[in-house]
Design goal:
Number of strands: 0
Order of helices and strands: HHHH
Radius of gyration: 12 Å
Number of helices: 4
Helix content: 55-70%
Low-confidence stretches: none
Largest sheet: none
Oligomer: single chain
């Protein structure tokens, strides 16, 4: 058994650090792609981790726009 972070939060963490202007520019693209890919995996293969209104309500205000933008770009 492995103890791992909630993949929704990990995806948002990657998107958050990719959005930081002081982040190493060589890493921001990778971080953003990883965050988007993980959110896509959650949507397609992990229904036990919903990206619903309840989850969105639990997010800090800085993360809500990141999730909204990621889902909008993914067509959801």
């Amino acid at each position: 058994r492995l103890a791992v972070p909630d993949p929704r939060w990990m995806a948002l963490h990657k998107l958050f650090i990719a959005s930081k202007p002081d982040r190493n520019p060589r890493k921001t693209g990778k971080d953003g792609k990883q965050g988007l890919a993980l959110l896509q995996a959650v949507r397609e293969h992990m229904p036990h981790y919903p990206l619903d209104a309840r989850f969105r309500a639990s997010l800090p205000k800085d993360l809500k726009p990141l999730l909204t933008a990621a889902l909008k770009n993914a067509g959801q």
